[in-house]
Amino acid sequence: MPGKRTDVVVIGSGVIGASVALELARRGWQVTVVDKAGGAGHGSTSASSAVVRFNFSTAAGVATAWEAHFGWRSWAEHLGRDVGPLARYVRCGMAMLDVDVAPRSVYLPLFQNAGIPFEEWTSADLSERIPGIDVGRYWPPKRIDDDEFWAETETTLGAVYTPDAGFVNDPQLAAQNLAAAARTHGAEFRFHASVRGIERAHGRVTAVTLADGSRIPCGVVVNAAGPWSTRINELASVGSDFTVGCRPLRQEVAHVAAPVGFGADNHAGICVADMDLGVYLRGEAGGGLLVGGTEPECDPLQWVDDPDAVTAHPTTAVFEAQVTRAARRLPALEIPNQARGVVGVYDVADDWTPIYDRTELDGFYVAMGTSGNQFKNAPVVGKFLAAIIEQTENGVDHDERPVRFVGEHTGLAIDLSAFSRKRPPGTENSGTVLG
């Protein structure tokens, strides 16, 4: 069944795909977005904790996060159109607790170069700024059924505090805002549309075919399919020159009541990144607390073969492990008897750094490996892909001459080869969810 031709098909309407659609549509491309879900942001985006932080281990990672946060802080201006109710950025600050695997000496010079405000806290400062916190150093993280988890410690840790960090209060709404803005520039969104194939001719993509038998002729495809991205690459027969792979990973985030005093005057408390114990904490206005894991080595990662087969219900074992670790750090935190939270599937690159790049198939581009740490960068990721696509389609080889993107808010130059599919694996980044 023939379909209307478009310039670009974006596969996936999460916060990344919607951002790509907006930036391409703004530049005059005719964009069609297809998604197997029923609406924008219904996949991995809806399960995101939506934390906005700047703690990355590479200059490109730090500069990208700092540039992107200005988009969140001026969300209406970033969208540029009236799209109705907006997602909101909550600036609550983040305390990154000291940990040997990501020492201050690695990222503070990057903060200084980027102009990111920060404060260095001693353990005494940490106790004062987050009342009731246990400042003990317990590294490495341990399973809660390990007797050593409960052992006392005489050593303490401090933290680095970034006052401009925070979170987006409704990640799904953020994706919907981007999609609505893209529509005002002519982008079309087709939901309940599963991709069945990628057609090619003479080494170039020519069309996307859908499960309902329809066909969308196009000259460019952007794979932003989240945990389904590797499957989409297989349909396109691309990936033979990738040095970095991606796999779907099941994740859980626990929802509990914050301890009394964690947030004041109905405001969310400070975000806490606690790799020392293996968790992160993100408050919510009204007294809620989100608790997620940082993938410590003592916990088996839940890799999955089929993202569609993942159960959406949180498990007691993961809930208890995460919340008990959080209660070790915040002793006043009560551990509920019943698991409550959200389950999502992340698209995780081998080194936890995304791939924003072209591929060996002309016209086929990827924005993949994004889950776990890239929601925060969505306002700028669309601009990255637009720059890569426009340069490549104009005959400049992004492999040989990578785009050097200059942030409009910060003026920082970002070498997009840092997100290349051909990058040397594990040479600079931390190899953790911190990136």
TrEMBL record:
The keyword Oxidoreductase applies. Keywords: Oxidoreductase. It comes from the Bacteria. Residues 7-387 form the FAD dependent oxidoreductase domain. InterPro entries: FAD-dep_OxRdtase, FAD/NAD-bd_sf. Pfam families: DAO (PF01266). This is Glycine/D-amino acid oxidase-like deaminating enzyme. It comes from Nonomuraea angiospora. The lineage of its organism: Bacteria, Bacillati, Actinomycetota, Actinomycetes, Streptosporangiales.
